[in-house]
Design goal:
zinc, carbon-sulfur lyase activity, metal ion binding, four-stranded mixed sheet, 162 residues, eight-stranded antiparallel sheet, CENP-V/GFA
């Protein structure tokens, strides 16, 4: 699916081809919550990195999160979180460990996205108490990461493009 996205102020616009375009996976980790804002979650889509085209690259910032461990240590994430330096909009994540992929934030996409037949709420062990997570037959709730990838979820639902 062809996706077009932008930041809030319009200084950055991008487009890419998504193989996994259905926004179903809500992440409540502190990195996603604090860098993408919203109701305590961020939703990443799956796209092919070689199709990413960007206008306004001069307005891009990149953040690599610091991840603390239980022993008090800290490491820098390999994920590069791209955002607009003009308005702060979170746009996409690229991780050189998976150079063929880019993960646009659903919140930055201007193209209408298909509704998800079910939603996965992950890393709920990081969720603040004030965030209410839906509960029901089409809502999967996980304290950690799911075993199923974005690609596998789309394949299971017959939604995989390509």
């Amino acid at each position: 699916m062809h996706l077009e996205g932008s930041c809030h102020c319009g200084k950055v616009r991008f487009r890419c081809e998504a193989y996994a375009p259905v926004p179903f996976q809500y992440c409540y980790c502190s990195i996603c919550r604090k860098t993408a804002g919203g109701s305590g979650s961020a939703i990443n889509l799956g796209a092919r990195a070689d199709t990413l085209e960007v206008e306004g690259r001069g307005h891009l910032g990149v953040y690599q999160a610091r991840i603390r461990d239980d022993g008090g240590g800290c490491r820098v994430s390999s994920g590069h979180r791209h955002f607009c330096t003009g308005c702060g909009s979170a746009l996409w994540l690229f991780d050189p460990e998976w150079p063929g992929l880019v993960h646009p934030h659903a919140s930055a996409i201007d193209t209408p996205l298909p509704p998800a037949p079910e939603r996965v709420h992950m890393l709920l062990d990081s969720k603040p108490d004030w965030v209410v997570v839906p509960d029901g037959p089409d809502e999967t709730r996980l304290d950690g990461f799911p075993d199923e990838s974005l690609e596998d979820w789309h394949r299971r639902h017959g939604l995989l493009d390509g």
